[in-house]
Predict the structure of Lipoprotein.
Amino acid sequence: MNVSHHRPRTIKIALAAAVAAVLLAGTACSSKADGDDADGGADGVKAGPGVSAGTIKLGALTDLTGPYATLGKSIVQAQQMWADEVNAQGGICDRKVQIVVKDHGYDVQKAVTAYADISSDVVALPQVIGSPVVSALLDDIQRDTMLTFPQAWAASLLGKDAVQVLGTTYDLDMIAAVDFLTRTKKVAEGDTIGHVYFEGDYGANALEGSQWAAKKAGLKVAGQKIKATDTDLSAQVSALRKAGVKAVLISAGPAQTASLAGVAASRGLTVPIVSSAPGYAPQLMKTPAAKALEAMVHVVSAAPAVSSDLPGVKKMVASYGKKYPGSPVDSGVLSGYNAAQLLGADLKKACESGSLTREAVVKAHRSQTNADTGLGTPQDFSDVSRPASRSTYVLKPDAKAVGGIVNVEEAHEAPGIEEYLSSRG
C-alpha cells in the first residue's frame, strides 16, 4: 500500500520524540536495608526476616528508568505516602513501616540481582513491576514464602501461594474489551479486529483472552506482536489497515498506545482502540497524540479512574496532590496505594495472630475473602488459582479530568468470563 511519505513521517517523528521525552523521564531511588532483629519485640509477636522490635521492612522492585518509569514513580510515591500515613498513626503492630526501593529499569537480570540484595531484609513485596521480572523471580519468591503483589497481571502468575495478582488478569480484561466493542455495536459478527501486543507473558495472556472472546463473537483477530522497545507503530498500523480491521486492541505500554492512535489517525484508520490499563498514562495528553487518544481510545481496567467520585479515591487523590504537588495523579497512584493498603491489612491480621513471619503474613492474606480498600471492587484472595476480581471498569482519556481519564462504565463482570475460567480449569 502506497502512503504519502511526508506528513506521516513528520507526525511519527514528532510523536516518538514527544512520547519518549514525557514517558522515559524517571527518577532513580534506592535505600539500603539494615539488619533486623529476628526475635521481634517485647510484645511477644514472633518475627522473621524484615521485622525487628521497631521496624517492618517491605521491598519494592520497580521501574524508574525504563518503559514504565512514570508508572514506577507513581507507585513508589503512593506507597511511601501510605507508609508515612501509617507511621504517623503509630505504625503497624507498634512498628514503623519502611519501604526499601530498588530500580531494575525493566531489566530482568537487574531485578534478579536486586531481589538477591534485599530478600533477606524484607518481609513482603507490595510492588514488583513487570511480568517477565515476576516470572524470573517466581521460584525464589515461593522458596522464601515472600508475599508479593506484582504490578503485572498475567494469568501465568496465578496458582502460587505467595504471589497475588490484584484485580483481574490480562485475558479477562481483553474478554471485557471485546464485550464492550460488540455490546456498543462498534464491531459486528464477521468483522476483523486487530490486537497489538507485547511479546512475553503480558501480550500472550492478553491474546488468549481476545482470541477466545473473538471466537465466541464471530470475529477474526489480526495479531501484531511487538517488543517493549518498539515505540513507532507505523508498520503495524499499515498491516492492520491492510487487514481491514474495524477496531484494535492494544496490550502494551503508554508509548505504544500513543503511537498506535496517532499514526492510525494520521492515516485515516479511525477505528475504536481499547487498551489494557498499563497502556495508558495521563502524560500522553501532553503529546501530539492527545486528540487521537481522546477520539479513539477506551481503557479496560480492574480499577476505577482516579477522577472517580468514590470517597476513598477522592481522599487519596487529595492527599497525593498535597504530598507530591508536582506529580500527575495516574492509575499507578491508585494501584500502588491500593496494594499498600491491602498489605497493611495483611500485616495487621498477622500481628493479631501473634506472628509477623513471612508464612504468617501469607496465611493472613489468603484468609481475606472480601478485601475492600474503598478504591474499587472487593477482592477474594482465598483461591490461589483464580483472579481476585472479575469485574472491570471502562474508562476514557479526557485531558480535563484528574489523571487524564474518566469512568465511562462502572465495574461489571463481562458475560462469558465464568465460562472462560471454567474452560481453563
